[in-house]
Amino acid sequence: MQQDKSTQFAQQNLPKGGKKPHDPLVECLIVIAKSHELPVERDVVVAGLPLDNKGLTPSLFPRAAKKAGFSSRIVSLPLVQLNSALFPVILLLKENDACVLHRLDVSSGKAFVSFSELGDAPVELPIDDIDSRFTGTAIYIRPEFRYDGRTPEVRNLKRRHWFWSVIEENKPLYKDILAAAVMINLFALAMPLFIRNVYDRVLPNLAVETLWVTSAAVLLALGGDIVLRLMRVYFIDLSSSRADVKLSSSIMEQVLGLRLEHRPASVGSFASNLQAFEFVRNFITSSTIAVLVDLPFASLFIIVIALISWPLVIPVLLGVAAVFLYAMTIQGKMHDLTEQSYRVGAQRSATLIEGLTGIETIKAVNAENSFQARWEKVVARLAKVGEQLRFLSASVSSGAYMVQTIVSILGFIVGVYLISSGNLTMGGLIAVYILTSRVMSPVSQSAALLVQYHQAETSLTSLNTIMELPVERPVDAGFVSRKSCQGNIEFRDVHFAYPNQEREALSGVSFRIRQGEHVAILGRIGSGKTTIERLIAGLYQPKSGTVFIDGIDIRQVDPMELRNNIGYVSQEAMLFFGSLRDNITLGYPQASDQEVLRAASIGTLDQFVDKHPHGFNMQVGERGEFLSGGQRQGVVIARAVINDPSILLFDEPTSQMDNTTEGIFKTRFEQYVRQKTVLIVTHRTSLLNLVDRIIVMDGGKVVADGPKEKVLDALKKGQIRRVET
């Protein structure tokens, strides 16, 4: 009874796709793109952005605009002060709404605006009506100029670096930091000059009035120093946090956008490389930048020392030279150790993640000993390298402290002789001592930052490698936009080999699948069945040959748009931490309850969801560990059909289901896919009832292709030859 009810529910004539929530900023971007005759698709401009239920936010808008080929700038101005030369402009309105302002006629009091609900054509409204809803924030937007193929580069132009360009965006803040540093270091002169004045003028003459005046001035300077130091820390932290958020977002966007053929082989090592950004983040924090900013001002204090007594400059200069000379001497060794530490750390992460992921298998085959030995070997090596690195770092800090102490002692020795000869006063000597510490302190601290510097440099080099890897959606791709997908598929002499593999997974594969056709792909292990579905989904690109969808090379189609029309079920049945509903709607979060129920019915999830107290809110655990293998496959099937795609690519979709559940799935799936293109990779003959055509693969080549009964008969009689490898 339950089966009949669910099957009947799966056959309901539900609308294709859910009604996407209204997103004012996306609609405004599309309106402006149309005015510049630039085609833009909603799903494409928000692809990969961290959207929530509120849709595209002003802070995310520049990233969406960049995907559409526009540059943008957010400004806060009264409506009448907006620059008409930069119209059309997007106005942010109250209640999370937005509109496009095309023209503002102040003389007549009229504004010409476009609202997404009313279409693209501008409407005429009183300025006061718009101004009453205007929040005071607007977005200027203009298309970026792009060179075409007729204008090759005469020389390689300097391109914006993913890291330094973000740092450069905080230039106004760094100017404020520099200004604060100048004042802080000028105020630092107050105390030594005050002490010199007290010893040389106030005490000998008992000039109490002078004492109070100078004391008040110094206290005022110290108050200003405290305020400026707090402001400097605030500005440095603000710039660091801004850079941190943008850089972290850029790195994650790059990682998620990587073409799979360029994905690193080890997930653990790759994760360690990404975590290396922590070293870069630590290096641009307040303490580091404060030391680096203060370092140039050491020359100011050296000049003041020379003005008091030039012979006392000599010990200071010798001390500075000694610290930097030792630091430069150990540069090479420290760089090598830092790189070793980085690589061994990546290996440790790879070993850890591999062990945690496969811990069930490790226990089942009694492999704890070998993994424990491998882990301890890596950890021991990392500890040894870390010990050497810490020793070098400590030697720099200790050496700098010793040099600073020696410089102070030499300063007093030279100072005593100068005082005895009448060339220096007691106040001058004490002032020089304080100034000497002001010189040596940033020098010593900057030398101690060598380890952090090398860690940041190594990490940045590694991240540069990642950021330069090819992505699926390059800025200058110029993808073709398709409003709909019929479901015609064609392979034309396709050759493909996986990265670092000499043997081709596909060798000269050609076939054509018509819209609405149901096809099964059979073949031995490693014959190329799964690879075909991966190429259709655009997960990999052929080495040569072409894959067509509806007669268009899929390399011309935006991957996001392509996969919106494809429901793909891989062998792994990968789930993510969260609820059952979260996993079903993973790529289609706006799905309605009706769509979720329909998809769950097709995936046979109602067989256990209806009996669970939490229903679709039940937690599935990491990688779906709280579910059985068959249940995980049901979730993945539901995820594949949730947005009602035109093409379904299923790879062993029921390999872990029992016969009863598989039978329910077949009945519901057969009703659902009547008008869809279906491609099923399977070793189970029971699923062949869903198809009317079979393609047989062997050795990366098509060895048979035809009606189901004819191909099955040929297989039984041994009439289909195998490819010799």
TrEMBL record:
PROSITE patterns cross-referenced by the UniProt entry: ABC_TM1F, ABC_TRANSPORTER_2, PEPTIDASE_C39
GO (cellular component) term, any one: plasma membrane
BP-aspect Gene Ontology terms: proteolysis
Keyword terms: ATP-binding, Cell membrane, Hydrolase, Membrane, Nucleotide-binding, Transmembrane, Transmembrane helix, Transport
Organism domain of life: Bacteria
Domain annotation ABC transmembrane type-1: ranges: 177-455
Entry keyword annotation includes Transferase: no
Record's protein name: Type I secretion system permease/ATPase
The species this protein was found in: Prosthecochloris marina
